[in-house]
């Protein structure tokens, strides 16, 4: 049990920050993908 607790303590904070940043970036990526898909129609 102590091994798991140490692992969570060591890796938990970076993992939490990573998931937070991925969550924030996901919305921006979706907007970018939609813009790229609509670009050919705007260029006509």
UniProtKB/TrEMBL annotation:
Q: What InterPro entries does the record tag this protein with?
A: YvrJ
Pfam families given in the database record = YvrJ
> In its UniProt entry, what is this protein called?
YvrJ protein family protein
Q: Which organism is it from?
A: Sediminibacillus albus
């Amino acid at each position: 049990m102590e091994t798991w607790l140490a692992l969570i303590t060591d890796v938990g904070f970076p993992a939490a920050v990573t998931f937070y940043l991925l969550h924030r970036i996901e919305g921006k990526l979706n907007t970018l993908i939609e813009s790229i898909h609509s670009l050919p129609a705007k260029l006509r």
